[in-house]
Amino acid sequence: MRAFTYQRAQSPAEAAAAAARTPGARFIAGGTNLLDLMKLEIETPQHLIDVNGLALDKIDAIAGGGLRIGALVRNTDLAADPRVRRDYAVLSRALLAGASAQLRNKATTAGNLLQRTRCPYFYDTNQPCNKRQPGSGCSAIGGYSRNHAILGASDSCIATHPSDMAVAMSLLDASVETIRPDGATRTIPIADFHRLPGNTPHVETALTPGELITAVTLPRPTGGVHIYRKVRDRASYAFALISVAAIVLPDGSGRVALGGVAHKPWRIPAADASMALGAQAVAGHLLATAKPSAESAFKVPLVQRTLASVLAEAKKG
Ligand SMILES: Cc1cc2nc3c(=O)[nH]c(=O)nc-3n(C[C@H](O)[C@H](O)[C@H](O)COP(=O)(O)OP(=O)(O)OC[C@H]3O[C@@H](n4cnc5c(N)ncnc54)[C@H](O)[C@@H]3O)c2cc1C
Ligand code: SF4
Questions:
Q1: For site-directed labelling of 303, which of 19, 53, 111, 292 has its Cα 20 to 30 A away?
Q2: What are the angstrom distances between the C-alpha of 2 and each of 37, 39, 64, 193?
Q3: Which ligand gives the minimal distance to the CA of 206?
């Protein structure tokens, strides 16, 4: 690990200003992703700004309905919150499908959204990787690509986003609240938060330099049956091969999001609009632009079958 300097931020505004002022600075929350990347020298920040002392660890009700989840709320606490379990069960289930209890006790809401891909070439500094080193090439294209994207990928990168929580946040139409180094705040709809790789796969989100996430908000609950189904190589402590998050209302309408298939959670408005028509129609819209490799082609029928199973389960209530 490279040497770095360290400070504890006293306020969100101070943290954002310090990040903009200090070259090579990064925020650190639970550290469960960043510290691993630093040990492997994939990320080499010169300065760490510890945000754990900021009072961003509360879950508050929003007047008129909805929840405001502080950026530092731990994954364990978010999954266990009675309001989340009752009104946003898909979020609780997605969180509990991720990592291990020990990791969830440290992992934060903001850090989870910003965790980096699990593409093995990203972690191997001997291999070209456009995300780690822009312009060096993509080893996964034509290489080992079994767990890579089948949707929204580019000639520069076919990595997937690994977060389970982000898939549920996408399904719930969450918004990300931030503060910038000049003190200005803004709200980013989750659909615009993560980016597709294009020719800049190292630019993963809409955040600008020094911008700090302060909270994630959820709109009023939708009701309906909430399901998060994660398919993986072993029953626990593994990232998704694919996942399906769905909310189904009593009249058969609803919404659906996929994980493990793209550089960001995958939602298509036409798929939501066709929910009442059944799984085949929904899958047709979600997978319309799928371009798997020979190794990842199994994900197409896996999505189709998982979706059919999820919607059948939802019908039973
Ligand atoms: C073995 C293992 C298995 C795992 N399995 C799963 C899994 O199955 N599913 C899953 O979804 N996840 C899984 N994870 C990932 C885990 O959920 C993430 O590591 C965790 O959520 C990251 O949160 P953190 O607070 O520790 O982030 P950190 O490591 O502290 O930070 C991650 C990134 O977020 C930035 N950051 C942190 N807070 C802020 C903020 N407020 N504003 C702006 N930037 C910020 C940091 O600068 C850094 O770039 C696994 C991790 C491990 C190590
Ligand atoms: S898929 Fe993306 S992360 Fe993986 S090697 Fe290619 S550029 Fe790197």
A1: 111
A2: 11, 8, 48, 30
A3: 1
Nearest CA, atom 32, ligand 1? 111
| Average pLDDT for the chain | 97
What SS3 class is residue 67? strand
- pTM confidence score: 0.98
Q: Is the CB of 72 under 6 A from ligand 2?
A: no
Q: Please write the tens of the pLDDT for every residue from 89-145.
A: 999 999 999 999 999 999 999 999 999 999 999 999 999 999 999 999 999 999 999
Decide whether any atom of ligand 2 lies within 6 Å of the 162 Cβ: no
CB of 129 shorter than 6 A to ligand 2: yes
Spatial distance between the Cα atoms of 261 and 223, rounded to a whole number of angstroms:
26
Contacts 24+ apart (CB under 8 A), 134-142: 134/200, 134/201, 134/202, 141/293
| DSSP letter (8 states) at residue 8 | E
- Which residues are bridge partners to 161 per DSSP? none
Which three-class secondary structure state does DSSP give residue 289? coil
CA distances from 195 to 62, 81, 200, 239, 297 (A): 28, 29, 10, 20, 23
pLDDT tens digit string along 1-56? 999 999 999 999 999 999 999 999 999 999 999 999 999 999 999 999 999 999 99
Ligand 1 atom index nearest CA of 95:
11
Least distant ligand from the CA of 144: 2
Q: Is the CB of 116 under 6 A from ligand 2?
A: no
End-to-end CA separation in angstroms for the chain: 51
